[in-house]
Write a structure and sequence with these properties.
The complex is a heterodimer of chains A (about 475) and B (about 90).
Chain A (H helix, E strand, L loop, with lengths): L1 H9 L5 H19 L2 E4 L1 H16 L11 E5 L26 H8 L3 E6 L19 E2 L2 E5 L5 H8 L5 E5 L6 H7 L2 E4 L20 E5 L2 H11 L29 E4 L1 H5 L3 H16 L3 E4 L8 H16 L27 H14 L2 H14 L5 H24 L2 E5 L15 H6 L5 H6 L3 E5 L3 E3 L2 E3 L2 E6 L4 H14 L1
Parallel strand pairs in A: 2-3, 2-6, 9-10, 9-11
Antiparallel strand pairs in A: 1-3, 4-5, 6-8, 7-8, 7-12, 11-15, 12-15, 13-14
Helix pairs in contact in A: 2-3, 5-6, 7-16, 10-12, 10-13
Chain B lengths: L3 H10 L6 H18 L34 H7 L3 E2 L2 E2 L6
Helix pairs in contact in B: 1-2
Classes of the chains: A alpha/beta (about 475), B mainly alpha (about 90).
């Protein structure tokens, strides 16, 4: 889609300003019902678009993404733009700097339409945890858009953005992509700089694109990938054009499947994934059964590591440096030795009123697991199991190039269906979370739709590749997409 | 089972004010999650080394040079309370 629009721009069939206005108009029409956006950056978008138009009219060459309007998840900082991460604690936060991914996108002349909704501070699987309201699924407004990057997925699916950025800590790009029928890519941990992404669980977080096609995802990744001095975990790699690997074939690729992943699905979902496997066979890939004996512990491992890192990362929201600051003048009843009451009450009140229920749950779970006497039993144990899961993948990747799995156990569920039971909500990530635990790149691609209550709903499948092998990941995803 | 008293203690450590009513809910939710996490007890990992960083990168270092931040005043504007361009903190002693 990006290439087509790029052609239209350089053929002068449309200006970037007109394209941007078209998208802004569609947002105005549709977003009342969907609520994909928290903030629109109309002035910034039009300014960016006009610059590109001026370049085109001067006869200068423009890049592929130049002048193409997209959306940014609201946990990524754009300088001078309100960045809330869908939390009341950052309600008044105007980012004073650009995230590295934003800086890179600005450098290539991409246009930003606005900031998209998410589960508060990226914790959730349905965008129902947003402090500002839920993002509905554009394909069925009674269903969730997925989460936490639900706003980004919905915006792309509804034609309210050509492309979008999301973040993925346990499936937050891929699960909403599957629910909304778009492509969602979580790159290898370290492939993309996390500088300027509002930190959640630092050993798992990664930024990636949500797009209409695999080619578009490759275009965005080519821009945002690369080492960055501002993120010491970013890996050495830069300047790669990932679209070069989209050959349209999978000859010689070995794709692993895990029997339990497929057998555990409902009948309709199973049928969908089996069709994908058949397609890959027909395209010439070799399908091999593999075993990942420890992968079933990924979700439990995640719900120790993630809350622990959350507990530490979110200590920054203290009502002192920035964000919401509250002192309700009431005694909280919490006795803490070692600090004056007034200071303690500001911490307690700012966080009590500023943070939502799920975020508090995770902070407390992590604080508990890290508290005196429990460290070995929880965090250290989880890190050890993480090693075992990683070894499973290392062994599997001796035999196969890619692993194929469902993205989520079901298509988009109904609004409110899982909000009363946090554990049920966590299970929505059972297939996606492993890629974060082991750090490998993974992509969700729309597969055959699944019928629920007489309605066909999108259902994504997921490919995982070796660490830093986005080339084969995108190659295989693209081959399916253009041959389906 | 995490008791209400334990939740209150953890809430204090986490610096989160909680109402009496919330204590009940958190006690239930945290207990349920911790029970579910117990499945890791099945795994014997005593001799396994922990993984903190997944891609096994080495430390990246750079010169520790002092630089100026171009948007200083924008950071000052974000302080809930400020005085003479500095963040005003509640008394800490």
């Amino acid at each position: 889609m990006i290439k087509e629009l790029h052609q239209k721009l350089i053929n002068k069939e449309i200006t970037s300003e007109q394209l941007t206005l078209d998208y802004l108009m569609r947002i105005e029409e549709k977003d009342k019902d969907i609520f994909a956006y928290l903030t629109l950056t109309k002035d910034l978008a039009l300014e960016q678009a006009r610059k590109v138009d001026a370049k085109i009219s001067r006869g200068e060459k423009i890049g592929l993404l130049e002048g193409i309007p997209g959306a940014i998840k609201d946990n990524l900082c754009i300088s001078g733009v309100r960045t809330t991460a869908a939390s009341k604690i950052l309600d008044n936060y105007i980012a004073p700097y650009d995230a590295t991914v934003i800086k890179k996108l600005k450098e290539v002349g991409a246009v930003f339409l606005g900031k998209t909704n998410l589960d508060e501070l990226a914790m959730g699987s349905s965008t129902e945890n947003s402090a500002y309201g839920v993002t509905k699924n554009p394909l069925d407004l009674t269903r969730v858009s997925g989460g936490s990057s639900g706003g980004s997925a919905a915006a792309v699916a509804a034609g309210e953005a050509v492309w979008a950025l999301g973040t993925d800590t346990g499936g937050s790009i891929r699960e909403p992509a599957s629910f909304c029928g778009v492509v969602g890519l979580k790159p290898t941990y370290g492939r993309v700089s996390r500088y300027g992404a509002i930190a959640m669980a630092s050993s798992l977080d990664q930024i990636g694109p949500l797009t209409k096609s695999v080619e578009d995802a490759a275009i965005i990744l080519s821009v945002i990938a690369g080492q960055d001095n501002l993120d010491a975990t970013s890996a050495h790699s830069t300047g790669k054009d990932y679209t070069k690997y989209l050959t349209g074939e999978v000859q010689g690729l070995r794709i692993g499947i895990v029997a339990e992943y497929i057998d555990g699905l409902g009948e309709k979902e199973k049928k969908s994934i089996l069709e994908v496997i058949e397609k890959y066979k027909k395209l010439g890939a070799e399908i091999l059964e593999i075993e990942l004996p420890y992968a079933k512990y990924s979700l439990a491992t995640y719900y120790i590591i993630q809350p622990c890192e959350v507990s530490s990362n979110l200590a920054r929201y203290d009502g002192i440096k920035y964000g919401l600051s509250v002192d309700d003048e009431k005694d909280s009843g919490i006795k803490e030795i070692g600090m004056p009451k007034k200071l303690l009450e500001t911490y307690l009140d700012s966080r009590q009123y500023g943070l939502g229920k799920e975020v508090k749950r995770r902070i407390m779970l992590g604080t508990y697991a890290l508290s005196a006497g429990y460290y070995d039993a929880y965090y250290l144990k989880a890190q050890k199991v993480r090693t075992l899961i990683k070894k499973d993948f290392e062994k599997a990747f001796e035999k196969v190039d890619l692993i194929l799995a469902p993205t989520a156990p079901t298509p988009a569920f109904k609004l409110g269906e899982k909000t009363d039971d946090p554990l049920q909500m966590y299970l929505a990530d059972m297939f996606s979370i492993t890629a974060n635990i082991v750090g490998v790149p993974a992509i969700s691609v729309p597969g055959p739709e699944v019928e629920v209550d007489g309605k066909k709903l999108p259902f994504g499948f997921q490919l995982m590749a070796k660490w830093f092998d986005e080339e084969n990941l995108l190659r295989a995803a693209h081959a399916y997409e253009i041959n389906k | 089972m995490i008791s209400k008293d334990e939740v209150k203690h953890v809430a204090g450590l986490a610096r989160i004010g909680v109402t009496e009513k919330e204590l009940e809910g958190f006690s239930h939710d945290l207990s349920a999650t911790l029970d579910w996490i117990k499945q890791l007890d099945e795994v014997d990992a005593t001799k396994i080394l922990p993984t903190a960083h997944i891609t096994g990168m080495n430390d990246i270092s750079r010169e520790d040079n002092i630089g100026s931040f171009i948007n200083r005043e924008k950071i000052v504007e974000l302080f809930p309370e400020s005085k003479n361009g500095y963040a005003k903190v509640k008394s800490v002693l």
